[in-house]
UniProtKB/TrEMBL annotation:
Keywords attached to this entry: Signal
Signal keyword on record: yes
Protein name, per record: Uncharacterized protein
Signal peptide bounds: 1-16
Length: 213
């Protein structure tokens, strides 16, 4: 009888612990989602000084490396147009596609007025990084996007395989080296200068976090 009582009285305790662990996991998941929805810019790190310390911008449906103002940390005006391109300003969020397993996507604002968000994706044929709506991005590589263990570096499919390609003199487009061969298997960037680089998240100030979400 004593043993029976011990077993019976232990059940609520074990159940309570189980519920507590489950709730804690739920809270941890929610906190992780909130952390991944923190908005950030992207800065370029490269051994080549000409693009080291530059930033990622969006223009003409593609992702580019662009010089920035060291004081404001914003893109410098383009020498050809006199206007500054739109800086990558994004966060992680699940990609909405019921036909795929849950995939963490990456979005960015593409304009401030009107405020608009687009998906960042890798073109499955050219491996260029581009941005577009769900219809434009769906057939391409849309994730999984994440960060490095220190939550600083940007990763795609688990690693920092990014390459800047000088498509025109002084114009560096961003590619994803999916096959880890420095893009040798692709025809389009052949003959162009290529620089391996990594991208680091620069968290935006608190007052800018809730804009455009």
């Amino acid at each position: 009888m004593v043993l029976g009582l011990m077993v019976i009285t232990a059940i609520p305790t074990v159940t309570g612990i189980s519920l507590g662990v489950r709730e804690q996991k739920k809270q941890n998941a929610e906190m992780a989602n909130e952390s991944r929805m923190v908005k950030f810019n992207l800065e370029v790190y490269c051994e080549a000084p000409e693009i080291n310390g530059t930033m990622i911008v969006l223009r003409n449906d593609k992702v580019y490396v662009h010089p920035k103002n060291p004081t404001t940390n914003q893109p410098l005006p383009s020498p050809t147009t006199g206007r500054a391109p739109h800086p990558f300003t994004g966060f992680y969020i699940q990609y909405p596609d019921e036909e795929r397993s849950p995939t963490r996507g990456l979005v960015s604002t593409i304009s401030n007025d009107p405020p608009m968000l687009n998906w960042i994706y890798c073109d499955k044929d050219t491996h260029e990084l581009k941005y577009g709506n769900r219809t434009q991005s769906r057939e391409h590589i849309i994730g999984e996007w994440d960060w490095t263990k220190d939550e600083v570096g940007l990763t795609l499919e688990g690693w920092e395989g990014f390459v800047a390609v000088e498509e025109e003199p002084g114009q560096w487009a961003l590619y994803y080296d999916r096959n880890n061969d420095n893009l040798r298997g692709l025809a389009r960037p052949r003959g162009k200068r290529k620089l391996q680089c990594s991208l680091e998240r620069k968290i935006l100030p608190e007052e800018m976090q809730n804009k455009d979400k």
